[in-house]
Write a structure and sequence with these properties.
- The complex is a heterodimer of chains A (366) and B (399).
- Chain A has 366 residues and is mainly α.
- Chain A contains 14 helices and no strands.
- In chain A, helix 5 packs across helix 7.
- Chain A is globular, with a radius of gyration of 28 Å.
- Chain B is α+β, with helices and mostly antiparallel strands and 399 residues long.
- Chain B is built from twelve helices and eight strands.
- In chain B, strand 1 and strand 2 form a beta hairpin.
- The chains are: A mainly alpha (366), B alpha+beta (399).
- At the A-B interface, helix 2, helix 8, helix 9, helix 12 and helix 13 of A face helix 1, helix 3, helix 4, helix 9 and helix 11 of B.
Chain lengths: 366, 399
């Protein structure tokens, strides 16, 4: 009786593995797909070389004025010449370090909870976080610290977008949490006030809110008081953000099991102990991805401030485009630069958000 | 154990204090809030009245009946400088509704195509969908509006060297010009036939459903409906001798006459809104389809359904439960975002009312509140319609 000797396995057919296999599987699996793939490939082949040529190879990179733009491609000189304006607006040259300090501090304040040891986190990290908007604004203004006074008329550029967005969401945190608590309250009057507040700020276009801040709010202050325009806008941003965040928190509250409340009650905790020590940490945890998504929306919406005459980055770009020394049409370069800046920030944040979501996902789904 | 060993509740030494009674506390807090709010509103109203008097601003809605004195770039109803502010409001409102409807329809189409493209077997199509969503979702909408308006449409040739398709559609820096359909006598009968076709289809569907319930026999409802929808109006059209003619735009020396045109402001706004919202809708569609458990597909396959029927009968109805609420909020934000028209001068409600009219009359409070109310009502309407739609796709649980 012959012993069974297994033959060595045959190699996979050449058309099913390697590059050919991948191409067959992913680009040309059947006739309609093949046609679509070919059309798309043809499109890329015709467009991409020209695009790269315009973007990089024929572009002008070095120079300081429009005369340097001689090539056929993009004129990046436009962007580099206006770079300081794009980032800092018209902020006094010698004081720009203050803006930088502010941005770095913002980064530190956000990173602090991750770096500080547990016991210091709530005692130092949290107050710093909540106080940052006020200290930062006072520092940029300068008068309180005995520094040179820089009027808010000169604040601008991308740093203003970042500062406004961050300062608004930080203050909106406690405010929206209160609104969300009010919306869940047993007291009918408190509940209805909160519902009206939340639905008002969510249901109205943010642009109308900005107009309300710039043309209507001055009418509401006592005669003679002159409230800074940027401050009014900031208030509007905070309220707008609070409306959206309150709904995010409401979703978070709904995700907390009833047992958590009951357990806290049976331990004899007071309402605020229960809310702040038991419920809030869990709510923040489950709503973190949505909070970031809301923040991204707010951050993109800071460009709307252009319409009421705040010199944020897009507004600065429009000014640069109509500057008499740069009239040869650099709209595409300017907008691409701003788009890139925003894209990097927003895409980065949505990556972080996805990451947190994965990390926090301690649910028992397997 | 005898009952007397059960410790009795300690007798209250004093009745529960008035302050610790939760009912009283709730009343107290609400009273406090009410007083605070009353003071807040009293102070802003009295401040506003004092300020308006000091600045000589009139109040009330009388301005709605006075002549506005400015012209509007694009109007759907007749309008000129002698028309009232009330009419300005209506013109703006109609323009807002126009851009919202076009935007919603186009964004839904783009969004669904791109959302489904994510699940394509084709690597290129899948990448294209991902790149589209991630690019346009993360760039501010206002920037996109500016890009289309100032960088793309402004770079189009002038009227003289218009890009033309078959000498009937022209695209230039002043907008898109295309032939308009003008009606002649008898056109109304054609319109009536379209309505009739819809009524017939509605009755047919009712009858077919009833027959299926009673006998179990299916009726090819989709193909019959489509047939009726096209055949009936076409038949009337030819019987009436085609009571329409096309008014072609004519290329003159400096401008284009005749036909209909779409102004570049509207084009830029619609393209930007479509592309931006489309990216969000694509994301919603992707989330919806992914929310359907894979077991559903496997179960359907094992029942022997074809891939197309799996999609239309199993996946889509379940995915819609996730997609519809998301669509609702995307549509609402599209309407709210259409206010960006004011940045490029498309005459929507915001531009003509909060922009021009407010500048001329100075009646900030009335105008801003009227505008807010309009957007509120539009969004409520969308929400109402989408909630109805949601009810029809929602999971019907066994009672």
């Amino acid at each position: 009786m012959r012993e069974f000797k297994p033959q060595p396995a045959l190699p996979a057919p050449i058309q099913n593995v390697g590059i050919i296999g991948w191409l067959r599987e992913n680009l040309f699996p059947n006739i309609p797909n093949t046609i679509v793939s070919l059309v798309l490939l043809a499109f890329f082949v015709t467009v991409i070389p020209d695009l790269f040529d315009w973007l990089f190879f024929s572009a002008d990179w070095i120079g300081a004025s429009q005369e340097a733009c001689t090539g056929e491609g993009a004129c990046w000189v436009f962007v580099s010449a206006w770079m300081q304006q794009f980032i800092y607006g018209s902020y006094t040259d010698s004081e720009i370090w203050r803006v930088n300090v502010c941005l770095v501090t913002l980064g530190l304040v956000i990173a602090a909870p991750y770096m500080l040891p547990n016991e210091l986190r709530n005692k130092i990290g949290l107050p710093l976080f909540l106080l940052f908007p006020f200290i930062g604004a006072a520092f940029l203004d300068g008068r309180l610290f005995g520094l040179e006074y820089v009027s808010t008329d000169y604040w601008g550029g991308f740093s203003l977008n970042i500062f406004l967005a961050a300062a608004s969401i930080i203050i909106a945190f406690p405010l929206s949490f209160l609104w969300a608590l009010g919306r869940r309250s047993d007291m009918p009057f408190v509940r209805s006030v909160c519902v009206v507040l939340i639905e008002f700020f969510r249901g109205v276009p943010v642009l109308a809110l900005f107009f309300m801040g710039s043309v209507m709010l001055p009418l509401f202050f006592p005669e003679g008081t002159n409230v800074d325009k940027l401050l009014r806008v900031w208030i509007v941003l905070i309220l707008f953000m609070s409306g959206y965040m309150a709904e995010v928190f409401r979703g978070g509250f709904q995700a907390i099991p009833q047992g958590q409340y009951e357990a806290a009650d049976s331990l004899g905790l007071s309402y605020w102990q229960k809310t702040l020590l038991i419920i809030l940490p869990q709510v923040i945890k489950v709503s973190m991805p949505n909070i970031l998504a809301t923040f991204i929306m707010l951050f993109k919406n800071t460009t709307f401030l252009l319409i009421i005459g705040i010199f944020e980055i897009l507004s600065t770009t429009q000014t640069a485009l109509t500057n008499s020394n740069w009239l040869e049409g650099h709209a595409a370069e300017g907008y691409l630069f701003v788009a890139l800046v925003f894209w990097v920030c927003c895409f980065g944040m949505s990556m972080i958000s996805a990451n947190i979501e994965r990390k926090l996902d301690t649910s028992h789904r397997s | 154990m005898s009952p007397e060993h059960i410790p009795k509740e300690a007798p209250r030494t004093k009745p529960r204090s008035f302050y610790n009674n939760p009912r009283n506390r709730a009343l107290f807090y609400q009273l406090l809030l009410l007083l605070g709010l009353a003071y807040f509103f009293y102070s802003i109203v009295s401040n506003a009245l004092a300020n308006m008097e000091a600045r000589g601003i009139k109040s009330g809605f009388d301005f709605l009946f006075t002549a506005s004195g400015f012209d509007i770039l694009m109007t759907l109803i007749p309008y000129d400088a002698t028309s009232t502010y009330g009419r300005t409001f209506v013109v703006g409102l109609l323009n807002t509704i126009l851009v919202s409807i076009i935007g919603i329809v186009l964004a839904t189409i783009v969004g669904f195509i791109m959302g489904v493209a994510y699940f394509s077997r084709n690597w290129l199509i899948k990448r294209l969908s991902i790149v589209y969503v991630e690019t346009f979702r993360n760039i501010p909408l206002l920037l996109q509006v500016f890009f289309w308006y100032f960088a793309v449409l402004a770079a189009l040739p002038g009227a003289k060297d218009s890009i033309s398709i078959g000498e009937s559609i022209f695209l230039n820096v002043r907008g898109l010009f295309y032939p308009s359909v003008e009606e002649q006598s008898g056109a109304n009968i054609v319109y009536a036939s379209v309505v009739l076709a819809f009524i017939v289809i509605f009755l047919l569907r009712k009858w077919a459903r009833k027959r299926q319930d009673e006998t179990g026999q299916q009726f090819p409802i989709l193909s019959t409906s489509l047939g009726i929808l096209f055949a009936l109006p076409l038949l009337t059209l030819f019987i009436m001798g085609v009571p329409f003619y096309l008014d072609y735009p004519l290329l003159g020396r400096f401008n284009i006459s005749g036909g209909t045109s779409i102004i570049p402001e509207l084009m830029a706004l619609v393209v930007a809104l479509t592309v931006y919202t489309g990216a969000f809708i694509a994301e919603a569609v992707r989330a919806g389809v992914q929310s359907v458990a894979h077991g559903q597909t496997e179960a359907a396959r094992s029942l022997g359904l074809s891939e197309r029927r799996i999609m239309s009968l199993i996946i889509v109805p379940q995915a819609m439960r996730v997609i519809v609420p998301l669509l609702n909020s995307e549509y609402q934000s599209l309407v709210k975002n259409s206010t960006l028209a004011t940045a490029i001068g498309y005459p929507d409600l915001f531009t003509v009312f909060v922009g021009t009219s407010l500048n001329q009359t100075g009646q900030a409070i009335e105008i801003v509140f009227m505008t807010m109310a309009v957007y509120f009502v539009i969004n409520m309407t969308i929400s109402f319609i989408m909630n109805r739609f949601n009810d029809s796709v929602a999971l019907v649980e066994r009672k």
